[in-house]
Prior knowledge:
There is one protein chain. The chain is an alpha+beta fold and 594 residues long. The protein folds into four domains: 1-66 and 149-350 and 439-467, Bira Bifunctional Protein, Domain 2 (BirA Bifunctional Protein, domain 2, 2-Layer Sandwich); 84-147, Herpes Virus-1 (2-Layer Sandwich); 359-430, no CATH class; 483-593, Anticodon-binding domain (Rossmann fold, 3-Layer(aba) Sandwich). It has 20 helices and 28 strands. The strands form eight sheets. It has a nine-stranded mixed beta sheet with strand order 3-10-11-21-16-15-14-12-13. Strand 8 (151-153) and strand 9 form a beta hairpin. Helix 2 packs across helix 16 and helix 13 crosses helix 14.
Amino acid sequence: MSEGDSPDLAELAKRRGFFLQSAGAYGGVSGFYTFGPQGASLKDNIENSWRDRFTLQEGNMEIDAPTIMPEPVFEASGHLDGFDDMLVECPECGESHRADHVVEDNTDYEEAEGLGPERVGEIIEEYELVCPTCGTGLAGQAIEDFNLMFETNIGPGSSSPGYLRPETAQGIFVEFPQLAEYARNQLPFGVTQVGRAYRNEISPRKSLLRVREFTQAELELFIDPEDGEGPDLSSVSDVVAPFYGVDQQEDDDSDPLEITVGEAHERGLVADPWIAYYLGVAAEWYESIGVDMSRFRFRQHLSGERAHYAADCWDAEAEVDGDWIELAGFAYRSDYDLSKHDEYSDEDYTIFKQYDEPVTVERPTVDPDMSALGPEFGGAAGDVADALEALAESDPDAFEDAGEDGSVTVDVDGESHEVPVSQTGFAVEEVTESGEHITPHVVEPSLGIDRALYTVLDHCYREDEVDGEERTFLELPPAVAPTTVGVFPLMDRDGLGEHARDVAADLRERGLSVAYDDSGAIGRRYRRQDEVGTPFCVTVDYATIGEAEDASEGAPGTVTVRERDTTAQRRIPVEEVPATLEALRDGELSFSEL
Ligand code: GAP
């Protein structure tokens, strides 16, 4: 595992098949991880739980776009020009580092990214910061912009550059015109995507927390900015969470405010109702997958951190190994993304918004007299006519103020042209309109699955003592645990193995994830399942098959069900096992009720 992992968790993650550095046989490459059987299953469960909450329950639509997209998409989105991190190279060992991280790790500055390369260079000099690898001074080294996108060629040759997507969001934005059709052009509507994203991070660190290939779960919610109504907050208004607003962050003595989502919105702390709504949904969701809410907070972006188009942005953060890490971002992105694709592509990224009642409006128009403009302006006459049309729309007073005998001035390719108003055909017409084209605004909850998974493992990791022996276990919620039930025969003889295999088959048929284990002492088998977070184990013994010489321990035809966290055991009839375990997994029954 890489530097910075909690050692016990890293050791457990590899030994028990959660995740390991990829291609270790060839030395491994930083920032790439393979999820083992337990990790892949945990990841699937987290993704499916996200899908259930953010897509299905919200009535949103999910899409699945390619991970490679052509260059024009990223020209429009701004990633080609601006998706950079600050790189500083050590003059001695040649190792590359993120300059803002060097500053954050060695000074009191937080969020150094927002300070910009010049200031970061000055701080490196002021504090005489050194290369984290070899200790050589970094003062005076250039701070360069390093674009994080992985570039590739689409097809042979290099005429068609493409990029591995750095976020899943663009796959949604580019398809907006079609997606709006699917949503019958009715705002608001939400589109989700869960999939891989790629960033050529300068210095990947803390195993899954900063990697070069990771999974995002993003929701792009398209809203009408004029619609004052917003979402119904009632379902989340009582959710309590720590809110660390800009004011609290700027006041050194202030802690996050432990308040409800409803209060955070009413106080104006989380001004946008959609952001407030999804913070509430996310807080409940993170808790449901096993994040410890006493190590969780929502932090508002400081003005330097926020993209220029984002009106507001909050991060969900969790404390892991003593650091606060960003699990997700919740941004109000205005009309930035759709306007950009509208500008760069040939498609229309607006939506036609129908008025409740048709309205009559005055519409300034021009009908230039080309028989006069042609001789006057020659080849530029068409452009002059277009410029007149644009002027009528943006500044109709220019025509009215000039009067019938006056003239207006338009610029074409940097040259000013005077045109008599009488040749423009300017008029103000009354037209009845049934609606207008608007560019929807976007609210984006964007979550990282790998960071959620690592946080859940860290927050659910427990050590205790059972029967005088140390035990480690993962207190994972049953709904996300990689395996729901461990099934063991007490011994693999006298038909116990066969019966246990039947029990396992019945559980699998019911859709439960089952691990069958008949090797070693029963206590060892319990420990193995505890370590990977299996919440329940079922043991088949002689009472199950009704052949016990000593059946006093349980009625014939029963099995033992054991709970991971308390290690408590109950006997239940074998025929009730599938329904009982399903109810335990789904939270419809608690173990103490058995
Ligand atoms: N579409 C917006 C967007 O991509 P972001 O804050 O850059 O926003 C969203 O990324 C989430 O993706 C982050 O909150 C984090 O959980 C995850 N993420 C980003 N970069 C990552 C990396 N290098 N390794 C692991 N997760 C990452």
